[in-house]
């Protein structure tokens, strides 16, 4: 697990920067916290987040009483693209971040831009599930993590080589303010995602 002071400082600074941040010791607790933030019957969209997949959060949302905009059910690429656009108008958008710096800024890299667009503007509420492996002491190490860890692992996941990471991860995002609680950050005491 990450250093306790790193977790505490990061949560404190995220909250000071207008995010609504908390810490949950386990993945199970983090998923329960995320679910508690989603009203019954809400429309829910999501980006390509391995943290949301691996934690079981997406499975629980799919099994719940929500209107899920599930791009994985699309019949073809046109329908998938339409669903990704519709997710920008969902009540809730589920995601993760590729890195979070101790000063309370969050960082992402994206291919199509749908995930970073939803985080920046769109859904009334964004819920990010973030493993402690993504916490960084400063912005420089956060940027390095995004480019050398997250981008590379995503490239490999899509059957590309590490050298081809920039071909699918080409939109870089840094968010320094959380929109007065619009963006909720749940830091999990276990490793999640890339």
Can you walk through the features of this model?
The chain is of the alpha/beta class. The protein has 8 helices and 10 strands. A hairpin with a 4-residue loop joins strand 5 and strand 6.
* Regions with little confidence, pLDDT below 50 for 5+ residues: none
H/E order of the elements? HEHEHHEHEEEHEEHHEE
Number of helices: 8
Shape: globular
**What is the strand tally?**
10
Beta content comes to 15-25%
N-C termini distance: 15 Å
Mean pLDDT: 94
- Approximate helicity band: 25-40%
The main sheet orders its strands as: 1-10-7-4-2-3
* Rg (CA only): 16 Å
Query: Which structural category do the helix and sheet elements fall into?
Result: alpha/beta
Please summarize the sheet with the most strands. Answer: 6 strands, parallel
In terms of topology, how is this protein built?
Layout: H1 4-16, E1 20-24, H2 27-36, E2 43-46, H3 50-54, H4 57-63, E3 67-68, H5 77-86, E4 92-95, E5 99-101, E6 106-110, H6 114-120, E7 125-131, E8 135-136, H7 139-157, H8 165-168, E9 171-175, E10 183-188
Parallel strand pairs: 1-10, 2-3, 2-4, 4-7, 5-8, 7-10
Antiparallel strand pairs: 5-6, 6-9
Quick gist of this model?
The chain has 8 helices and 10 strands. With 194 residues, the protein is of the alpha/beta class. It is globular.
